[in-house]
Design goal:
Strand content: under 5%
Structural class: mainly alpha
Largest sheet: none
Order of helices and strands: HHHH
Mean pLDDT: 89
Oligomer: single chain
Radius of gyration: 16 Å
Low-confidence stretches: none
């Protein structure tokens, strides 16, 4: 597969991941019963697997061959923080304020990670300001 094809799969799956997280977060904050349906709980794992597999495939077929640099290390570190906040939101968080803060912080981290990915700079959007 070509790098460009893998990149588009990666981008589309990231957009789907963001949309699913956004909607599921709203459902959890509203205590909507839809948030507990099996397909709602399973689909994010499928999408995230596609994100991960496409990222690994891009690294393997990349014309640069190797680790792209500090921006990717910082991006992956923030993704771990995003996952931890997501697990907290959909898991042990009991109070609406805690859930709301975890959801908003996770959204902001997700968007910041996107700026790091687009600009290939660990400062993301702050490198442009």
């Amino acid at each position: 597969m070509s790098f460009i094809f893998l990149k588009y799969i990666h981008i589309v799956s990231i957009a789907a991941s963001f949309a699913l997280f956004f909607v599921r977060g709203i459902w959890v904050l509203r205590s909507d019963p839809d948030s507990q349906e099996n397909w709602v709980r399973a689909l994010p794992y499928v999408v995230e697997a596609l994100v991960l597999l496409s990222a690994i495939a891009m690294l393997m077929v990349s014309p640069l061959k190797g680790w792209p640099g500090d921006w990717l290390t910082f991006k992956l570190t923030l993704i771990v923080v995003y996952v931890a906040l997501s697990l907290y939101l959909f898991g042990p968080a009991r109070f609406l304020l805690a859930k709301s803060l975890a959801w908003l912080l996770a959204l902001l981290i997700f968007l910041f990670v996107m700026t790091i990915a687009v600009l290939h700079n660990p400062l993301g959007i702050f490198s442009v300001l």
